[in-house]
Specification:
single chain, 139 residues, alpha+beta, 4 helices
C-alpha cells in the first residue's frame, strides 16, 4: 500500500501536504521520529494567538482514501499524549433509519494515548487491520 501525509505545524496557518507516495515502513518511521515534544515546547513559546494547530501528522491511504491522524498534546501532568483521528467510510442511518443506511466518510477521535500505543494503532492502519482500529472507537 502507498500513503501520503500532511503536517500541521503550530505556527503555520497552512497545512503542509506531502503527496509523494510513501510505504508502510516510512509512515511508521516518520511518526516515530517526529519531534513531538520539541514541537509542543515550541508551540508553548509562541503567543497563543499565533498557534494554529497542535502538532499533527495525518496519513492517508492513497488506494482507498482512509486516513489516520496523530495529534500531540500534554496531559495534566505535562506528559506527552495523543489523540487519534480515524477517517473512513462508515454506514450511517439517514433520518433516524427511516431512509435506510448510507455510506459516507466519518471521522472519530480517541484521546489520551501515549506514543507507544498510538504507534501501535498507526501500525494497524498501515497494515490494513481496520477492524482492530474500530474496536478502539467502540470503547
Amino acid at each position: 500500500m502507498n500513503f501520503k501525509y500532511s503536517i500541521c505545524h503550530p505556527e503555520k496557518e497552512e497545512i503542509e501536504y506531502r503527496n509523494n507516495p510513501i510505504s508502510e515502513k516510512e509512515v511508521l518511521e516518520i511518526a516515530k521520529n517526529y519531534p513531538w515534544i520539541e514541537k509542543l515546547k515550541f508551540s508553548e513559546s509562541l503567543n497563543q494567538e499565533n498557534v494554529h494547530y497542535s502538532p499533527s501528522l495525518d496519513f492517508t491511504n492513497i488506494n482507498n482514501g482512509i486516513s489516520f491522524c496523530l495529534t500531540a498534546a500534554y496531559d495534566k501532568n505535562k506528559k506527552l499524549e495523543f489523540s487519534l483521528w480515524y477517517n473512513r467510510p462508515k454506514k450511517v442511518r439517514v433520518l433516524f433509519g427511516l431512509l435506510g443506511e448510507k455510506e459516507r466518510m466519518v471521522v472519530d477521535d480517541f484521546w489520551s494515548l501515549n506514543l507507544e500505543e498510538s504507534l501501535k494503532y498507526l501500525e494497524y492502519f498501515v497494515n490494513g487491520n481496520y477492524s482492530t482500529i474500530e474496536k478502539l472507537y467502540r470503547k
